[in-house]
Structure formats: C-alpha cells, structure tokens
Design goal:
2 copies of one chain form a homodimer. Chain A is an alpha+beta fold. Chain A contains 8 helices and 20 strands. Chain A has helices at 33-38, 40-55, 84-94, 149-152, 171-177, 234-241, 263-266, 271-282; strands spanning 2-6, 14-18, 24-27, 60-61, 77-80, 106-109, 121-123, 130-131, 134-140, 156-163, 166-167, 189-190, 194-195, 204-205, 208-209, 212-217, 220-226, 252-254, 295-301, 311-318. Chains A, B: This is Fumarylacetoacetate hydrolase family protein.
C-alpha cells in the first residue's frame, strides 16, 4: 500500500491512498498520517479497503502539485549513519575518531517540518556548503523503552525515502562541540509516497531496503547506490534509539546517506562523500557543493524495476 | 499571567489560567498551549480576560495531581549551554576543547514528551549515572529564519523552568561521536507554570531570568543559583537556532544548567558540575549520581520572594 499526503488548510495535510501506478488516489476521511500511525491497527483495515477500491479503477486524479511530504511534520526524527563505507570514507578524509562498529551513530534532527518532493529549498547562503544526502527511513508506531531489535521489527509500519539537506561548512564546527547539529541540518525532504514494507517485495529483507537509489544532480547521474549495505539494520537502530526513552508513534528513523563499498562504480548519495573520495585519492576535493538554482533528483528503483516511493525532484533557492 | 496544563483525555491536555496564589484556575475552552502559541495574538486577550476574572476571586480549585508540564509535548526543543562557568568547569575537569565564547552551544533534544512537575521518572539503570539539570527556558511563537537577536526578543512569549534529565555514563560516549545525545537525554520535566515575562518583574532583564533557582536533592540543599549569568541571552540563543531554519511556534529554547561563578558558596544545579568541581580540587569526584528512589526539588525564587513557576518535585524510579 502506498500513502501520500495532499496539501489542505491544515499543517498535517490530508492522508490519501494511492494506486499502484501513482495516478489516482482516494482520501482517508479525517485522517492525517500522524493520527493514523498513532492508531495504526484501526487505520490499516480502512486504508486497505481504499487500496482495494483503487484496484477496481476508482479514485480521483492525483495532482503532483498538491503532494506534501507523506508526514509533513513528526514529533521525532532520529537519523542514523548506518552505512559503514560512508563512515570509513569520512573518517579517513577528515581524520575523525575510528568508526565504532558496535554502536550505531544517531542524531536527533528537526522534525517540525519535512519538505515535499518538489518544494523549493530556501537556504541562507551558498557559502554554507549546500549538500544533499539520499537516504531511506522507517516510520514506527509507539515503541516502548528497552525494546530489543527482534521486537523492534514489528513496529516498522511504513518505509520512506528522504533527502537530508546538510550544510557542510557548518557541520564540522558543530560536530566538534559534541552537541550535534542545529544550523548544519535544515529541514529534510521526503519522496511522495510512504509505503508498507510489502511494497518492496524481496527488496525489504534483514531490516534493510535493498532497492537502488538513483541520485541525479543538475540532470547528471551522481550515484546509483543500493540500500542493503547498512552496518546496522533499522530494527537495530530503533532498539538503539529506545534505550532510555519510549519512541512516540510517528517517529521517523533514518538510515543515513546510502553508501556502498563499490563507490568507484556506483557513485555516492551526497557530495560530501564524493569530496572525501577525492581528498583520499588526490589530497584535495575537486567537486564543489551546490549553488542556488541547482536541482537534485532522487528515486528508488526496486530489483524488479518499480519506483515505490516516487521521486524527489527539487531546486535550491536563496532564502 | 501564569498558565498551566491539566490532564484530560488528550495528549496536549487542557490549558488553564492560574491565579496569582496558584490555588485557583479557569479553563481556556478548547485550547492547549501548543495551539494557543500558534495563534498567540488571538489567544492572549482571551487568556488575559480569564486572568482578570481570577483576580475577582472566580475559578475552581487547582488540583496539583492534574498538573502536567505546561507544554506536555512540543515540535521542537533546543537546549543551549549558555552558562560560561558550567562550560569552563566541565572543560577543565574533562579536558574538553576550549569553550567558544563567540558561538552558543546548543543541541536538539527529544520534544515529544515533557514530564509534569510531580511525575515519577522511569529510567533503565542506576549505572547510567542519573543526573538532574536545573535550568530555565523560553517558548517562542513562529520565528523566521535569519532573525537577529534584537528581533528575536519580541518572539519570547512565555518563560518556563525545566529539569533536563541526563545520563552521565552515556553522555561522553555519545558526545565523542559529535552527533549529540540520544540515549543520554531522556525526556525533561517542567515546573507547573509557564509565565509571561512580566511575571518576573525586574528578574526578567537583558534577555535573562535573574531569579534564584533552589535545587534540593533528597531534601538537602544542593544549589541556590542565579539565572542571570548566561554568557548568551535567550534572544541570542534564538538567533543562533534560527540561522538556517524557521522556528515553529511552540519551540522551547533552554538555557542549559544554571551555573554561577560563585559556585563555592552557591552550589550547582546538576551533580555533574559538583563532581567536576571535586575533580578539579581533589583529582577525583566524591559525589555519586542518583539512585532509584531519590528525589529532586527545583523552585525559582524572584528577588521579591515570589515563586512564579511553582516547584518541580519528583522521584527517580526503575523503568
């Protein structure tokens, strides 16, 4: 099942179920995704009935201009950095402390706004080192403190695709404090559709999304990276996050930048990683960060050629 | 004006205006604090009329058992560490990088739950180094990206008093990653009343709260610290936070642990700081962290002897 959120007068928008071809939708009356996930066992059968109706050809035309992020705001966004290759490249290039393979990396990011897939992204300055980060995420229902990774798997209700906007000139300054990022992490964007895990078919396995993520910068292919090389699975990330807190329903857990051992052929999902590869190879980076007016497109492709999340396709503009 | 939130069937509770003596209240029909702050210009006159009614003796008996945090959840909690003395003591004791006096320290904390002033605090293990942090905070309405500190002052609508629970055995492990805290920062608690700045009288000046904060651990005075020694004011913290993002209405900005240059006579607002002082003086800490069953009480006292926020008074329990 594929869900989207359409713009209406309310900040959380209107929850809709979308047809397999992404062309038609039916509204879930009175629901938004954050209310639905809070009572998922009640919402799911109703959403399933709408999905079945769509298969009969029912539903209205889905206007892309109305599509917001599937969850335009959430109470919590916890982003991991679970791809070992990315961590190692950054560690070598920037002389960071060794990567801890026993303990996931994770930060708490702003969650009060997620941009829609085609929103313009207003940022204050090109000098901040504007970068994209293509990643996957999961949305959970309420998770109790102390959950194990085994137990955590059943709390994953939806999968999403995310662009974690990052300002690389600020990131190391904030990182050095140990306090994590504020200025270096403006709002993220989400692809149009949040999907139930069964939509991924064989590409949802071992708590990881195995689909390819295509990343295109100003129309040129930048990376075609696969999501299954996470050093920690999503259930392991959830268990890490819930060590000393209950996770509120609607919490979004991110994978961090998708990154592959085969980066030489597959490319990268963020500019910073390409620059790190250049620094390691040549002693200095040669790829510049984004300029105002630049565009980025991100689209996941399953092993059987489907595009379950739809595409992020957006432009950076001066705030 | 003093506001509180009473427990009802909804997660955001019921917003009420409280009399000057804290004994009576009148409900703000249909409002909670997060909805009120989103349309503060409309809410304020109505709340003011309720406050005037309370002065005539109207209102019901305020049952302390129903009191939640004034804002039981928020879309965003950004906690500073603005007291220079605290930063310097931690820097010396733990051999951290020098404190940057030009740039505020700030992390994004979990905001989906704030405990009420008398809630029991469930935590997973005494071995985590359970600590309190007495601090002040402000609640803002919508703040645009790029706001200056001068402009930010007018966005401060309410003042609050906070206990930022911290797990000190985990904190340095997470800090070392540069990603900030997840496991080391379970939900915070709030004192009963959010107050408009005029309630502080002369103790609200220069964007700082000048009141004393009394901190009592298991019934013994631990600190009587004053809030006006912030190295950065609240408006400066807001401007820092809004460098690359709009701040959503209801964002709470924290001061960090209140700390004074006169710590030898005034004490501290967290155990970690006392331990740092011991480490500097004696080479090792002698004060242990909290045990299950321990209590902490925190209460601000204005220079004219009032207690505008009421008291946090709560017990740590095994989760």
């Amino acid at each position: 099942m594929r869900l989207a959120t359409l713009r209406n007068a309310r900040p959380d928008g209107e929850l809709v179920v979308v047809s397999a071809d992404g062309a038609r939708y039916l509204s879930a009356p009175g629901l938004n995704l954050i209310s639905a996930i809070a009572d998922w066992d009640a919402a799911l059968p109703m959403l399933g009935r709408l999905s079945a109706l769509l298969e009969t050809g029912a539903g209205g035309h889905l206007d892309p201009a109305r599509i917001m992020a599937p969850m335009p705001r959430s109470w919590q966004w916890l982003d991991g950095s679970a791809f070992a290759t990315h961590g190692e490249l950054m560690q070598i290039a920037f002389n960071l402390p060794p990567v801890d393979r026993e303990r996931p990396l994770m930060y708490q990011g702003m969650s009060d706004r997620f941009y829609g897939p085609n929103d313009a992204i207003p940022l204050p300055s090109e000098a901040d080192g504007i970068d994209f980060e293509g990643e996957f995420g999961v949305i959970v229902d309420a998770v109790p403190m102390g959950v194990t990774a085994e137990e955590a798997a059943s709390h994953i209700k939806l999968l999403v695709q995310i662009n974690d906007w990052s300002l690389r000139a600020i990131a190391p300054v904030e990182m050095k404090t140990g306090f994590g990022w504020i200025q270096a992490k403006p709002p993220c964007s989400m692809a149009p559709f949040a999907v139930t895990p069964d939509e991924l078919g064989a590409d949802w396995a071992n708590g990881r999304i195995g689909a390819d993520l295509s990343v295109t910068w100003n129309g040129e292919r930048f990376g075609l990276v696969r999501g299954d090389q996470m050093g920690f699975s999503f259930p392991e990330l959830i268990a890490h996050a819930a060590r000393s807190r209950d996770l509120v329903a609607g919490t979004i857990i991110g994978s961090g930048t998708v990154s592959n051992a085969e980066y030489a052929t597959r490319g990268s999902a963020c500019i910073s990683e390409r620059r790190a590869i250049e620094m390691i190879a040549d002693g200095k980076p040669s790829t510049a960060f984004m300029a105002f007016g630049n565009t980025v497109r991100m689209e996941a492709i399953t092993s059987d050629g489907r595009k379950p999340f739809g595409a992020i396709d957006q432009k950076v503009v001066s705030a």
